[in-house]
Design brief:
Shape: elongated
Number of strands: 19
Distance between the termini: 35 Å
Number of helices: 13
Strand order of the largest sheet: 1-11-10-3-8-7-6
Oligomer: single chain
Radius of gyration: 24 Å
Structural class: alpha+beta
Largest sheet: 7 strands, mixed
Strand content: 25-35%
């Protein structure tokens, strides 16, 4: 049986020639398949980057029936990812996907077969991105996307910079999915030519997860997603990829911050940052006191009330940093990630294991992990300040800021600005030192 990807999941591809075959129960005349070649900014480079029945080949990407074949070595370096799109002719009755005809994708590459069955489309989607084949640190991967638009080609245009002619009464059919081309073979074209939009200014590099996906999966996080994006842009790291971790202090003195919702708020803020930096929408979450109390995850589906549900059964304890830091390192290394990690390490007290923490931070300075310590409460956490200037490290791999007695009173923008204060400098230093490859 082929391994199956979950929505948002990804898998490495061995290289060479890969094919993506799209199947669905919708009649062949009613649905179609195309591919869109995208640069690093998430936009097409020009008219030819849409591969469809009337332009079936471009830069190593070839359409044959319902299969897209990608010759990975032949794809130009300027192409960062290839989106595989399915759609339904909007001129037909019931012209949208339903749970009964939700398409699926099967990827064959170098003897590896991977499947993706997206969750049923139930919002009258007319065009969907099933999977993306994308570059990551010199290698190729496939990501299960499963994102649809009820606005068809107009929705795709927003995401990919493809412009649809909206002049005259023919505009409405033209704004339907790319797959309207199927009907166009038999009747007058339903889709007008799709020249690339010319942006008024240089395009902004794309976040790891699109706004449309966040709006669909977790509308309550949209404002946090946008606020985090502003801070990333100000610091020049929009488009950077990183695995985001959240480590939460569960010592006895922290009870008030859990009780008043401050910790849940922090978790949501970190998740809003994560979907800008990491495409899987999952934040590994750790509670610590004397040791590691619990390792769980936070994602777009489970985040509401997640902190209360997880911490309630846990006992309150003391404060030791090193076990939680080791758990983060072990988790990160076990994933085999190529992108760096950004760790939000929250605490309200200095640890009992100061020496072990210092030595661990020194030894971890050769790893692609940045530790952003966040202090809650009224204490002057001088030990955390000392970690920010600790000697005998390959690179400065830690930052610190004091969130104060009422962290929840800080604006989201202020929090993100402070979280991002030292991370960009670490990225530069880590690359120069060979810590990030």
């Amino acid at each position: 049986m082929s391994p199956m990807l979950a929505k948002g999941g990804n898998a490495p591809l061995p290289g060479g020639r890969c094919s993506v075959t799209v199947t669905a129960t919708a009649p062949a005349a009613a649905s179609d398949v195309c591919a869109v070649l995208l640069a690093k900014d998430g936009r097409v480079r020009g008219d030819d980057d849409l591969v469809f029945y009337n332009h079936p080949a471009q830069d190593g990407v070839v359409l044959g029936g319902r299969t897209i074949v990608v010759d990975l070595p032949a794809v130009p370096a300027a192409v960062d990812r290839i989106a595989i799109v399915a759609g339904i002719d909007p001129m037909l009755p019931a012209a949208h996907f339903t749970p009964a005809d939700t398409p699926r994708a099967v990827i064959d590459c170098g003897g590896v077969r991977i499947g993706f069955d997206p969750p049923p489309f139930t919002l009258r989607e007319t065009a969907v991105v099933l999977v993306e084949i994308y570059r990551r640190e010199g290698a190729w991967k496939v990501r299960a996307v499963g994102q649809g638009w009820d606005t068809g080609l107009a929705g795709l245009a927003t995401a990919f910079g493809i412009q649809v002619d909206d002049a005259g009464p023919a505009a409405a059919p033209a704004a339907a999915p790319v797959a309207a081309q199927a009907a166009a073979r038999a009747v007058a074209p339903a889709v007008t030519p799709v020249p690339a939009a010319i942006p008024a200014a240089p395009p902004v590099p794309a976040a790891a997860m699109s706004l449309e996906k966040v709006q669909r999966a977790a509308p309550g996080l949209v404002s946090l997603y946008k606020a985090a994006q502003v801070s990333l842009a100000k610091r020049g790291v929009i488009g950077q990829r990183a695995a985001v971790y959240l480590v939460m202090d569960h010592s006895g003195s922290m009870s008030g911050f859990y009780r008043d919702g401050t910790m849940q708020q922090l978790a949501e803020q970190v998740l809003g940052l994560s979907v800008n930096l990491d495409d899987d929408g999952i934040v590994p979450l750790m509670f610590f006191s004397n040791g590691v109390d619990l390792i769980a995850d936070l994602n777009l589906e489970n985040y509401r009330g997640r902190i209360d549900r997880l911490h309630a059964p846990l006992d309150w304890g003391g404060t030791c940093y090193a076990p939680a830091m080791r758990a983060v390192i072990d988790h990160y290394q076990a994933t085999g990630a190529r992108d760096p990690a950004f760790v939000v390490f929250q605490t309200d007290g200095e640890p009992f294991d100061r020496k072990a923490t210092r030595e661990l931070l020194r030894s971890a300075s050769v790893l692609p992990i940045f530790w952003q310590f966040v202090g809650f409460g009224s204490q002057n956490l001088r030990f955390l300040r000392s970690l920010d200037t600790l000697d005998r490290r390959t690179v400065d791999n830690a930052g610190y800021f004091a969130a104060g007695r009422q962290p929840s009173a800080r604006s989201d923008a202020d929090l993100y600005d402070r979280l991002m204060k030292e991370f960009p400098d670490w990225l530069v230093a880590a690359r120069a030192a060979g810590v990030i490859r």
